[in-house]
């Protein structure tokens, strides 16, 4: 089994073993070490038989110290001996005279919340062993080995896991959502994990919305610590140390101090961004799609946390890095059925060890010498018919087995629960790993025209879904032939920065005058969100000229393209 998810809350962790009890007849105990018959378990670094310790120090590993991605195996040998395997390494005899008919047991105890049964993968096991040896040998030197400064990665602004009762923090603490947004509209308050720095922009992008409720996202700052705050149903109920922008007004400690301020947050739609900043003159400024709305309050204390309230229609939001303000979606023309595509970028959601920078064009694994997986990145939109998605390998490290993996998936980025490697996904996914073509984690063929494990720095790797539903790979622009068929339309490109591959960047094609016209109509070049442009275009009573203006703009784009 592979450990997929741990939480840093409880003491103790996974326990694994065997039992003679049939699961259909077993009265499941609170923990398997309570069983008093027919059961052998490994807990921590010890072995327990029928609830009693039989070996205090077993093997080289402590199960309580294993990390996400580590693998635990069990095997009953033909002589009746039980062996455990940690990351493929045999830990020796744990028990003898084991009955021939036994069931495997996993106790998701304490810190461990998710595991998966997996096939043996020698490459993965070797990398896990290397990771452990690296951590033991080079712990003091990792700062010098990283592509990004350690403090920059550690100090990255995130959401604190403590939040309102209807909210949850996901995506490595970069995304907050209301999982049951159709059933509840409040109790969605989420704070940052640390106080904001002076002149630091705390900005989020709206990922999901529902149309059921009134009101939407609210944003601001508070002096209250996320671990000590008694989370209210809505942040505007807090009566001390709190400044919030709600709708187009500003509130201080629950009282409105500005009635008409900036653009109305209730009109924002998916893809729009809203932010807040405490400036060095102690004034508070709010931002909508990167545009400063002006001073909203003064005399702000030095130590304040960022806060959002996923209220009403706002169902999910993700923190946006300052360099990653790109449009994640396509822009639909209001006058035809054609779709105006935004430029290809990496999506702002990704694996926990990945980092997207350079306005969404570059993806890297900052701790490239300390981590080898959990670095999946995905395109910001589905590929259009016959479109090439191409990246160039920019950095590699000579430490791990395996390298970049690439492919496509029909899973939307917002719906993808990022695994440690993309070949772990068992549906709607086609990947090239080395020279093996895989669909849904199963190898379709080996010996494909190119071997990704042999490619070096400077090599370009491209992918394209052809009209005949085949997926082709390209190396430095040369077609390597059809890798697989039956690939549906509307797939997203996927790159797994695995093993030796530490950084790639998207190769931008020369798309000429067509895209020059397209960019005129994109919301990211406007001081207003897409939703506000649409609202104004539709509101002919209050803005008699705006519909004409916007119609002319989109007609111009259609003619140019």
From TrEMBL:
Q: Where is the NHR domain?
A: 1-120, 156-322, 343-509
Q: Name one Pfam family in it.
A: Neuralized
Q: Which domain of life is it from?
A: Eukaryota
Q: Which GO terms describe its molecular function?
A: ubiquitin protein ligase activity
Question: Do you know which InterPro entries this protein is assigned to?
Answer: B30.2/SPRY_sf, ConA-like_dom_sf, Neuralized, NHR_dom
Which SUPFAM superfamilies does the annotation name? Answer: Concanavalin A-like lectins/glucanases (SSF49899)
Q: Where is this region: Disordered?
A: 523-552
Q: What's the protein called, per UniProt?
A: NHR domain-containing protein
What is the scientific name of the source organism?
Diploptera punctata (Pacific beetle cockroach)
């Amino acid at each position: 089994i592979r450990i997929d998810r741990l939480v840093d809350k409880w003491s103790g962790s996974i326990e694994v073993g065997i039992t003679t009890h049939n699961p259909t007849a077993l009265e499941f105990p609170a923990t398997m070490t309570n069983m008093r018959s027919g059961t052998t378990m490994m807990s921590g670094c010890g072995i327990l038989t029928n609830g009693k310790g039989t070996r205090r120090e077993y093997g080289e590993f402590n199960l309580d110290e294993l990390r996400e991605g580590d693998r635990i195996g069990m095997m009953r040998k033909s002589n009746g001996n039980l062996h455990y395997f940690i990351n493929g390494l045999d830990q020796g005899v744990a028990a003898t005279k084991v009955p021939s008919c036994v069931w495997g047991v996993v106790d998701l105890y304490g810190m461990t919340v998710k595991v998966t049964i997996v096939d043996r993968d020698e490459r993965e096991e070797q990398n896990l062993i290397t990771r452990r040896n690296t951590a033991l040998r080079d712990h003091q030197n990792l700062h010098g080995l990283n592509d990004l400064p350690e403090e920059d990665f550690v100090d990255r602004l995130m959401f604190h896991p403590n939040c309102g009762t209807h909210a949850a923090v996901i995506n490595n603490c970069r995304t907050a959502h209301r999982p049951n947004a159709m059933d509840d509209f409040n109790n969605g308050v989420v704070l940052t994990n640390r106080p904001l720095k002076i002149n630091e922009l705390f900005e989020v992008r709206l990922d999901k919305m529902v149309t059921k409720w009134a009101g939407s996202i609210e944003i601001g700052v508070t002096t209250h610590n996320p671990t000590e705050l008694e989370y209210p149903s809505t942040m505007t109920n807090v009566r001390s140390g709190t400044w919030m922008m709600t709708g187009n007004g500003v509130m201080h400690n629950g009282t409105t101090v500005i009635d008409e301020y900036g653009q109305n947050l209730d009109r924002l739609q998916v893809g729009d961004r809203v932010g807040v900043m405490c400036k060095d003159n102690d004034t508070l400024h709010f931002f909508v799609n990167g545009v400063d709305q002006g001073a909203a309050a003064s005399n702000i204390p030095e130590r304040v946390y960022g806060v959002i309230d996923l209220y009403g229609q706002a169902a999910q939001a993700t923190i946006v890095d300052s360099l990653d303000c790109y449009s994640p979606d396509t822009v639909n023309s209001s006058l035809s059925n054609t779709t105006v595509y935004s430029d290809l970028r990496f999506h702002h959601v990704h694996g926990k060890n990945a980092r997207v920078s350079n306005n969404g064009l570059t993806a890297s694994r900052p701790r490239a010498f300390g981590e080898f997986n959990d670095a999946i990145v995905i395109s910001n939109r589905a590929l259009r018919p016959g479109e090439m998605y191409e990246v160039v390998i920019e950095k590699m490290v000579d430490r791990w087995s395996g390298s970049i993996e690439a492919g496509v998936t029909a899973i939307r980025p917002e719906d993808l629960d990022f695994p440690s490697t993309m070949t772990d996904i068992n549906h709607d996914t086609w990947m090239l790993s080395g020279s093996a073509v895989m669909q849904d984690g199963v190898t379709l063929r080996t010996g494909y025209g190119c071997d990704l494990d042999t490619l070096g720095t400077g090599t370009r790797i491209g992918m394209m879904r052809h009209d005949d539903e085949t997926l082709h790979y390209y190396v430095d622009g040369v077609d390597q032939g059809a890798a697989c068929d039956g690939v549906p339309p509307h797939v997203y490109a996927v790159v797994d920065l695995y093993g030796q591959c530490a950084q790639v960047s998207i190769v931008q094609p020369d798309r000429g005058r067509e895209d020059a016209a397209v960019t005129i109509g994109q919301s990211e070049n406007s001081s207003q969100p897409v939703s506000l442009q649409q609202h104004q275009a539709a509101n002919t009573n209050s803005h008699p000229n705006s519909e004409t203006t916007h119609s002319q703009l989109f007609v111009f784009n259609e003619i140019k393209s």
